[in-house]
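Figure 6 in text form: structure in, sequence out.
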């Protein structure tokens, strides 16, 4: 297999600065790394946060973003085991971790203090050739449609893990705030596949049709409802058993604490810049509400999430465009206009 020395990528030099589609060098894998020919990459709202510099963790600069990369292994470092040239591999948010600390030892690898993050501290999947730690790279079954599996690598894994964190039983209600977006559209389907009943919250009629087509039983339009909390409590006979917050809205998170029924769990996933969650202590105690953060997933969560997809239980509703069109996707995302996920084809 011949590997070129240069490739197309989208790079930015400063947070919020120009997103340049240009030729850069193909990276060389370190001894522990795979070199993956990225065919497709999903575009996650995290990529937009990273570009804007929204969070209290600095990005690498200049940076190639992207962390939902699906491609083919074309080279590997001398210490890599368990991979062959030609295998399908996925680039996840967690590019690598130390594997030695307390958190790594207990399989909480995303929480490792030395975590290396694709499209954040490590050049990611908005390029044709990217490197990934061979231990953390996702194994994708041969023959899988690489465009459609791409969103599973962050959005799918994250919502699957968040649903597990809510500790629900089959037949219980789960609210998904931000249900029409990339994470939300997959969360509806994982929730259904796990046996839960879904209340979807998002804005506008088109998103309402969309989330119902994916299996949501109830849709609440946050742009129209005058009483989101009351509406959800009524539709679910007293509130949902679990709430997964994948919107980029502080107000939506606060509402979720109120519409979750007693003894239920509020899961925080979406990361609006500078947001805080507000819960009355008396209410949280007397109603025994659990508020839990959930951050991507570990290797087992990744394999399980891919397995749900491979068994045909999860349909990724994607729009495929060329990598050079990334800036226009960020504009649509900022405006909340995306149904499901955009996936970029790195060859265009
Ligand atoms: O591991 C993690 N915790 C993790 C992993 C991946 C992504 C966290 N995230 C974070 C992202 O950084 C981002 O903050 O999850 C958030 C959602 O990512 P996404 O699904 O990729 O974003 P999107 O496709 O833009 O969808 C967001 C949806 O929220 C809706 C929008 O209309 C859109 O459909 N929304 C908004 I903005 N405000 C809302 C509100 N008040 C709302 N929906 C309901 N109520
Ligand atoms: Zn992501
Ligand atoms: Zn560690």
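Output sequence:
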């Amino acid at each position: 297999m011949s590997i070129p020395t240069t490739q197309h990528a989208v790079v930015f030099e400063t947070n919020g600065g120009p997103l340049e589609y240009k030729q850069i060098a193909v990276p060389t894998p370190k001894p522990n790394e795979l070199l993956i020919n990225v065919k497709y990459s999903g575009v996650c709202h995290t990529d937009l946060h990273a570009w804007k510099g929204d969070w209290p963790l600095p990005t690498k600069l200049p940076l190639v973003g992207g962390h939902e990369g699906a491609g083919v292994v074309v080279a590997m470092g001398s210490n890599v085991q368990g991979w062959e040239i030609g295998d399908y591999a996925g680039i996840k948010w967690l590019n690598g971790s130390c594997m030695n600390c307390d958190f790594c030892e207990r399989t909480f690898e995303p929480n490792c203090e030395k975590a290396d993050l694709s499209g954040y501290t490590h050049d990611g999947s908005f390029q044709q050739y990217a490197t990934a730690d061979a231990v953390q790279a996702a194994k994708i079954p041969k023959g899988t449609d690489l465009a459609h599996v791409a969103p599973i690598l962050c959005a799918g894994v994250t919502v699957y893990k968040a649903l597990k964190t809510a500790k629900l039983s089959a037949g219980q209600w789960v609210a998904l705030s931000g249900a029409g977006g990339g994470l939300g559209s997959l969360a509806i389907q994982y929730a259904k596949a796990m046996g839960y009943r879904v209340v979807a919250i998002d804005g506008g009629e088109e998103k309402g049709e969309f989330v119902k087509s994916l299996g949501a039983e109830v849709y609440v339009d946050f742009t129209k409802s005058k009483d989101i909390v009351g509406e959800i409590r009524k539709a679910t006979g007293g509130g949902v058993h679990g709430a997964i917050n994948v919107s980029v809205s502080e107000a939506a998170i606060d509402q979720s604490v109120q519409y979750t029924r007693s003894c239920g769990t509020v899961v925080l996933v979406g990361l609006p810049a500078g947001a805080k969650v507000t819960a009355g202590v008396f209410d949280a105690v007397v109603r025994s509400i659990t508020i839990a953060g959930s951050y991507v997933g570990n290797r087992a969560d990744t394999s399980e999430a891919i397995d749900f997809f491979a068994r045909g239980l999860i349909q990724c509703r994607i729009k495929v465009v060329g990598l050079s069109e990334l800036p226009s996707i960020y504009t649509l995302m900022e405006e909340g206009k995306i149904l499901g996920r955009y996936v970029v084809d790195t060859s265009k």
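Caption detail: Residues 44-46, 49, 154, 158, 177-178, 180-184, 201-203, 222, 246-249, 251-252, 269-271, 294-296, 333, 336, 338 surround nicotinamide-8-iodo-adenine-dinucleotide (ligand 1) (CB under 6 Å).
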